Every structure is written in C-alpha cells, then in structure tokens.
C-alpha cells in the first residue's frame, strides 16, 4: 500500500475550513466517486475504491493522509499532485 501525506497551510477558522472541505468533498465525489463523513468538527474520513484516509483541520494546517491500494499505487504521483493543487486553490493565504 502506498501512503500519501499532504499538508497545506491556511489562515481560516475551523468552521471556514470545514465549509471549504465540504465543497471539495462534494466536487471530488462527483468527479471521482469519493465519499466523506465527518468524525468530529475537525476530522473527516474519506474513501473510494482503492483509497481511504483522513482530512484533519489543525490550527493553521490542513493535513490529508491517504492509503492507496496496490492497484492505485502507480497513480500516487498524479493523485498527490491533484490533491496539492486543490488544497492550494482552496486554502492558499
């Protein structure tokens, strides 16, 4: 299994970051079949065939951790690049 750990800085309140992650999850759900559910106010579980992980809202950081299945491992670089681009677009200060 390949693991991804991606962080993006932000200067939002937890509620604002939560709203942006909701929007991102909806967009990614429509495009890639990703589902997400909030465990608490600052942590969401994300999942789709071949990938599962968490998105955590920290004080000034969004942290994404994903485990990719063996079948998805060859796409690790592409997936990581896409996530970084989306996080930067949503949270860049």
Brief overview:
This protein has helices spanning 14-32, 76-91, and strands at 2-9, 35-40, 43-48, 51-58, 61-68. The chain has 2 helices and 5 strands; from the N terminus they run E-H-E-E-E-E-H.
Describe the overall structure.
By secondary structure, the protein is an alpha+beta fold. The chain has a single domain (2-91), classed as START domain (Alpha-D-Glucose-1,6-Bisphosphate, Chain A, domain 4), CATH 3.30.530.20. Helix content is 38%, strand content 39%. The chain is built from two helices and five strands; from the N terminus they run βαββββα. The chain has helices at residues 14-32, 76-91, and strands at 2-9, 35-40, 43-48, 51-58, 61-68. It has a five-stranded antiparallel beta sheet with strand order 1-5-4-3-2, covered by helices on one side. A hairpin with a 2-residue loop joins β4 and β5 (61-68). The radius of gyration is 12 Å and the shape is globular.
């Amino acid at each position: 299994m390949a693991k991804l750990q991606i962080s993006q800085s932000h200067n939002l309140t937890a509620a604002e970051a939560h709203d942006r992650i909701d929007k991102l999850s909806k967009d990614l759900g429509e495009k890639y079949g990703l589902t997400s559910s909030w465990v608490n106010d600052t942590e969401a579980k994300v999942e789709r065939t071949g990938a599962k992980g968490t998105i955590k809202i920290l004080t000034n950081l969004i942290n994404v951790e994903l485990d990719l299945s063996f079948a998805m491992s060859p796409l690790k670089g592409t997936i990581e690049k896409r996530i970084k681009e989306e996080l930067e677009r949503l949270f860049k200060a």
